Amino acid sequence: MTATDPAAEPAADRELAGRTVVVTGATSGIGRAAALGFARRGARVVAVGRDQPRLASLLGELRALCPVRPYGLRADFTRLDEVRELGDRLRDRFERVDVLASNAGGMFRSRVTTADGFETTIQTNHLAGFLLACSLRDRLAGGRLILTSSGAYTDGRLDPADLNGERGRYSAGRAYGASKQANILFAAEAARRWPDVLPVSFHPGQVRTLVGRGTIASWYFRYNPFLRTPEQGADTLLWLAAEPAERIERGAYYADRRPAPVRGPTAEPDLAARLWDASAAAVSERESL
Description:
Helix content is about 40%, strand content about 10%. The chain is of the alpha/beta class and about 290 residues long.
């Protein structure tokens, strides 16, 4: 199956009407396309991004698509204090989150340590999203957690005892792959620990986005004419949010609207459990254990 273009679907389709959908990394690429797609489907969209002008621009587009008032919240995922504040603000405003689309992420040219003491890739792509999901745990009861992963997970060498990857030479691709492994493992373990939440991860395909700015990969992802559009990349995310829950396999990894096999260590339940414990300890979310 090839990805469809959600922008081409009729705006009258309101299959997500009445649902609150939080999209992180919403101001560009797949996140932006998904936020607009959710609005077309009638959802109350809560767009999260770190760039305030782009966030304001997106909110204007969302208001034009759907009569349900959208919300925009700024947060930088390289700062866990901002993620905690984001969780608090979401909890204060919404009694229920029907879908948390955990999409924020990036690829970074060199090893940089955040103010929280973590390598930037693993914090931005995994730990911050893990912290936000844990902080919204009760709001997600009966809802869905959808994590944007990547087929690049096969390039990762994730070690829960060394989340910062300090035991080896830094590689932007390998760090990114490890963070995408973490997304798949998080969804799988959440399915075991959170029985009242529907967690899944997905591969959007190779998408023309701004990922990897400053790396060699950025030229490939920005200018390759054969890559998917962000709208096509967001298709499986939108489908996972709207498809009846009984048709979705809990904890599975999807590609093009179908469960995809997970290869190598990423398929091991023990690795998923160890990553969960290491992540909870890292962000001091002991109550999630």
